[in-house]
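Summary for the funding panel

The consortium committed to producing paired sequence-structure records for every protein in the target list. Below we show the first two records in order, beginning with the earlier of the two.
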Amino acid sequence: MAFEDDEHERVGGEEEEAHLQSLLEASRTPEGRSRLAGTLAPLLLRRLSPSSPPRILLLRLRLLRNLCAGDVANQGAFLESDGAGAVAAAILRSPPDPTAEIRRAGLQLLGNAALGGEPHRGAVWTRLFPAGFLELARVREPGVCDPLCMVLDTCCSSVGGRGRLEELCGTAAGIAIIVEIVTTASQVGYQEEWLEWLLFKICVEERNFSNLFTKLSLPDDPDSSPPHELESVKFNIKHAFLLGILSKCLSERPKEVIVSNEFALDMLKILKRASETVDFASRGSAALPTGSPAIDVLGYSLLILRDICAWEHPYSPSLDAPIDSLLNAGLFELLLTSLRELEPPAIVRKSMAREQAIDQLTSSPSNVCPYKGYRRDLVSVIANCLHRRRRVQDEVRRQNGIPLLLQQCVVDEDNPLLREWGLLAVRNLLEGNVENQKEVAEFEMQGPVVTPEIAQLGLRVEVDKENRRAKLVNIS
């Protein structure tokens, strides 16, 4: 079923196209790939000419891609025939410019071949790093970006992968590839998970987040350099996109990842920077992503910190978690201050207007939620910080923050699930802490604190008629 060695290239030849289609169909199963193993792969590789008709070149690449999908013999033939070099010549820029489909099929072929072992990954890397990868990363097509991420992730995994990962993240030529990939994906999107795995590996597992994040900055002066510190970054859409990806990975696969203290502290720096940048005088009506880079960075950094604060080492839960470093660096103080500076929830504000609330609540803070869900996200991080941490529980009491947290146990249209997170925060605040329980029990009934929503979710406030003191009773 192989081609004859003296077969001439036929431009648009229907006979060759039909023959390739037949072989392509046969190659879709493991049995078919096994039957086709032998001379077909080397012959096809010799015919990967950029000058071939695009349709014929595409079929050849797709056939080779299928042949190398898990078949050791064909992967070996690919390596012995310098398949990486042949594919690189076919998919990199040359007259005529390869189509997105050709590039996609070629990258899928490289990814399948790279799975054959360390020699295969080394061959692919040698042929394409850095110039080839950079050229492909600049193709603003999700169909090209997705398999490119597959190739990079595969080459930077397993034996030998660490050295290549250091080249990718630790050199100017390498980090430029990742910057272009993020630029492409932020502009045209992505369809497969390879981008998520690659960025999570680079930023979280291998601690290259700060380097990439600063390189994503767009200086106002084309001749200037990106900032070297997270605290001086001017946020753009690529920063927000990257944080959105990392937040998604952390929330969906928390048990499959390792979170370093370095990454956690970097996120705190970004939260502080975003908190200084965002205009809290303008009320937002959109949920994340809002389209405003600074606001989206603020929101995604909160979501990431929420998940980090709930994370435990999957293999050694007894080890210090990143939350300990975050608390030592002032995370909780920042959160409590940010919540205190917000105006109360809408239902509490209405109650204050009716009841002429207590002195500490009469002066309404000037800050409003810059996006829909900001208050909820603040409270969710606070709730996770409070979980079984006596020092944080006591800090809330010392800063007179208990009434503030009780205020969050309400329904708020602009903050879905605020009530649930507020109740969790209060539960964590009181769990095992007699002093906090006593202080809550001694509160005098106040309209802004006690609302019907609290009772609807399993809590009842009973007030002593003589001394007007309130106590919380669980009725669930």
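The next record, for a separate protein in the list, is shown here:
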Amino acid sequence: MQKKISRYVTEEYEDSTLQHFLRAAMGLTQKEISRAKFLPGGICVDGEQKKVTARLKKGQLVEVRTENGNKSSAQLSASREPLEVLYEDADVIVVNKPAGIQTHPAGRRTFEADTLASRLMYYLGEKGEKGVIRIVGRLDKDTSGVVLAAKNRMAAGRLTAQREQGTLKKIYLAVTEGIPESESGEIRVPLAPDPEDKTRMIAVPDGKSAETHYRVREKGENRALVELWLETGRTHQIRVHLKEKGCPLAGDPLYGTGGEESGIGRTALHAAALTFRQPFTGEVIRVDAPLPKDIARLVEAMVK
């Protein structure tokens, strides 16, 4: 499957070589450029195939065809359950994941009936887009909010690089049992799997480094609405760090009290906002997901 990307030459790149423009303005890697050279119509300027040594003029249209390397997601069942799309373009899609569904099929259960990945597969399939779904940064089953997915291999690689470099940012909102002592701060506690229970993570001095930033947004008598963002992305990082801070997530059955008395049937954690760069144009994109009704009710009851 091929993908075509295009961009007009701006004054900044007047008289630049096509090679320089492809790297600096379009963000292509040398490997991507080399592959495009051998495709029919792979690298064109104003509709004519050109060598990468060609000089450019302002206003010219540069078009590049690349191999995405996409394969069919035939092993993944498509789900017709509703999908809330928050943002979409030719390369990426951002959706609002509801609580209660897995991001991906668990383990080898690729035919699991309803996951976020299977909903994405059905949605894109209905539009005639048959590529593999590549989700960049999953959420736990009980966590709601923004999830980013790439529509092709190249976009996935660039978004993953943003995540590793820390330029892809996600903001969470959480309701806690108990109120942090400070209005804002950092939690730096190393984490590792619990040797006695592999479903849990624990704080240990020789674990993997983990850093969470937080800010209290609202306070009640014994609960708080807390905004959080991460410098690292360890499993259950927010859940364990808040527990270590003495204010676990409301409704958390692993690290808090859980149960019906919490007033919510799941962990009260929501991925509220995502900021990233469009993988080919470099445009900064921010996407927000509204607070779901169950967490909004907790906040309303808390501040009464």
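Regarding this second record: Residues 70-163 form a domain with the Pseudouridine synthase fold (CATH 3.30.2350.10). The first helix runs from residue 18 to 24.
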